[in-house]
Structure formats: C-alpha cells, structure tokens
Amino acid sequence: MSGDNGRFATGVPGLDAILGGGVFDGGIYIIQGAPGAGKTILGNQICFAQAAQGRNALYITLLAESHARMIGHMRRMTFFDEAAIPDRMSYVGAFKTLEDDGLRGLLDVVRREVRTRKASILVLDGLITVHEKARSELELKKFIHELQTQAAFSNCTMFLLTSAFDADAHPPEHTMVDGLIELQSALHGRRAERSLQVHKLRGTWFMGGKHSYRITENGHAIYPRIEALLETPSVWDSADGPMVSVGIGGVDKMLGGGVDTHSVTVVLGPSGSGKTTAGLQFLTGGPANEPAMLFGFHENPMALRIKADSLKLPLKSRADKVTLMWRPQTEAVLDEVATELLSTIRQNGVRRLVIDGIEGFSKLTDEKERVGSFLSALCNELRALGVTTLATAETDHAGMTPGQPLKGVNQTGLSAVAENIIALHLAALRSENHRLMTILKSRDRRTDMRMRRFEILEGGIVLDADFQSAERILRDISSQGPAPTPSTDLKLTGE
Questions:
Q1: CA-based torsion, 464, 469, 473, 475: positive or negative
Q2: What is the pTM of this model?
Q3: CA separation for the pair 7, 16 (Å, rounded)
Q4: Which residues are CB-contacts of 266 (< 8 A; sequence separation ≥ 6)?
Q5: What gap in Å lies between CA 84 and CA 50, rounded to an integer?
C-alpha cells in the first residue's frame, strides 16, 4: 500500500481521500476525540488494514483496559483477523512501565518492540496518560521529539490516540507532529452525527472542513463532503452529445426532440400532479438494454413496481437493467447517501437516472446553506459520468392564480443545476381539477413553452396535441365567479 513517494493508504474508507492519498512512512500523527468517538476502533482498523497488506503493526496501550477485553470488542468488527495475531498484529501493554519508569521507560519499550517486531505501523493508545505523567512541558516535547526520531529511523508510521483537546490551548505535541485528526460528535435536535476534521497535515494537500462518519460492524466509514470531494467538475456545466427521449412523446416534441445526453431535467409540481409518473416514464423511456436507476426518498421499490404495473410501463420486464434505490429520511447522513448513490451508478454503469424528490437531500442536513453547492457538485459529477438525469421536486398546492398561472412556482436553487425545468400544475375549475404542463427553461434550444393540458392514462402522461384546451381552462379560471352553493339533493353515488 506504500507508494513511490513513501506514502501509503490507511485502508479506512473515505479517510484517504480526505488526507489527499494517505499518510507518509515515518510520520507521526495524533488522532484525538472525546470518549466514545471511536479512536480505539480507528486505530485497530488502520493496523489490521496494514496487516492484511503484509505489513507488521504494533498496538501499545497505556490504559487500564486489558487486551483481552479490547480484542473481545474488536472481534465484533469485520476487519478483525485472528490469524494476524501475533505475527503481523501485536498488542503490548506499557501502562505499568510508564507508571514505574516514566516517559524514558516508555520510550525504551517503543524502541525495543518496534525493532523486535519489525513494525512499520505503531498505534500508541493513551497519549493523555503521557501528558499527565510528564513532569514539565519540556519533558513532553522531548518525548515527542524522541518518538519522531524513532519513527524516522525505523521508517515506522506512528498514530498517537488521545482524548485531550483544547482548541485555545495549543498543546506542544500539536505543533510537533506531522498531522492532527479530530473525531467529534454533535447533536442536531435529538439526532447525533459524527464528524471528522483534519486540522493539520504536513507535506501535502488535504480536504479541510468537517466530514461525516459512521461506526458500523465494518469499522469507520468516512464520507468526505461531496462539494469538497467533487470541487473540480469533471466536465463544465453544460450538456453535450445526442438528444434522448424523456419517455413522454408530447414533451419530446415541445423540447424539439428530447433532452441532451448528460443533461439534468427538473420536473416541478405539487403532490398528485404526476411527477413520479413522469419519472417512471423517463426511467423506461430509453433503449431496453440501457442501464437505468430510480433513486427516491418517498416510495419504496415495491410501491413503484405496483405503480408501474398499473400504468402498463415495462419496469418489470427490464428488472435486470433497472435499479430501484430507496433511502428513507430517518437517520440518513447527506454525504453518506450521495456516496452510496454515486457508487451504485458507477458500479451498474447507469446512463439514465431519476431522482424522485430532489428536495429530500436538504432534509438530511441542518446546514441549509451548503445544499446549493452540494447539488451543483452532485449534478456536475452525474454529467461527468455520462448520466442523463430527471429529478422531481415538490411545490406547494398554490393552485392557479387568475392572470398569473406561474405564481407560486419556485425554482430558486434548481435553475443553476438544471438545463431543463418542466412545471406541472393542478388547475381547479369549478368542480373539476385539470393537470397542466409547461416548460419553464430549456437551455440552448428552440422550445414550445405554451401550456398543455394532460391526463394520466394507461402508458402514463398523455399531452393534448396543442395548447387550446389549456388556454381555455386558464381563461375560464380568470372569468369564473364564486363557487356555487351545493344543492341540498346532491347525489353522492356517482350517478
């Protein structure tokens, strides 16, 4: 795992991207965080990842917890490999030595064990204990300096784990080490979210800011912020390539033949206006052998299959080419969801994507100010992957205002990421509800932007051939009087 520049990947998913590729051989790094942040798990995960690559790892503890107890906890993790102990993964307890012989005795243990075991990775768990044992700040600095010398001499990369951190105090070891990584946990209402931040990393670029992580049976899974990970788009924010069908004949005609490959189209509308139906038609509107995917926050895959069957859309017959991915808005983390989405797209070679409920991303974070840059980075990456995307977004049930048919349609924040924007409306005319459609935006093409009335029939959305019906409905809405008083003998039987 070591590169030509003396750098190697830690083997922790997401961490190496944040570190700009990994850490350096012979470097010394502090990993700090409050109790329960996952420092011990992360230290073990790095060690076992290196042991799996044939390197020798050494884990030295300065805590009262026994190795048997620690190993018992680590056995629950999938990265744990019993066969690696003790040849490639060794545990050494040095708490008694530190207590009896001080920092000098601990240094002797480190030198001896690194040399004897030919360790190229060392985790020292409990730096705060060293901090408390040091008789002065100078003695602590000398200890860190001696560790640096030993790391460089033996080409052994060292990770020092500690719970001590005061942002205003600037402990001396922070200024001396090659890197400083902090694990944090914060409450968002009643929900807790973990984050990782690199404060310092010598000799290389790293991804700044906070990045979410989870601890599962697989250990740490770290999710770099999407807008930081994909800061530089693979392609410019424009579509190219041939036009493709949106799966709705009338819409293709209004758009002059379809939408551009690699483009993003947003369909706006209130609940019940036909957004998901439009998404299903787009999903099944390409070639039968084209990999496609629907990602949504609301309707689960079973409900989508039932809906497609009722509309007579060929979703079932394309099951081997269509992926349905559902992510409830419960305990999901924004960057985790985006990472899973992009990973599935790459793995399946998806070329046609539906995001049903794009506003759902904003509900996964309290940091509303980052949603715009997040969506921009995500859409740019979709274009770079050659994916043609249709996303739906829900608007309020504002109805049609006489003389202002587009009042209440809010496309703020979406226009910057989409080449095309289509609006669906529910127009109440006396006792009838009509569905209307219009194109609000279409980049670099001649477009028919006149409204069309449409119905949802077998096969999905079917538009009127022209705008006459829509115009008559809008005219009648403008001229209709107050709602009539219901008759006392109103029949409710549907006769």
A1: positive
A2: 0.85
A3: 11
A4: 358, 390, 391, 392, 393, 411, 414, 417, 418, 420, 421, 422
A5: 10
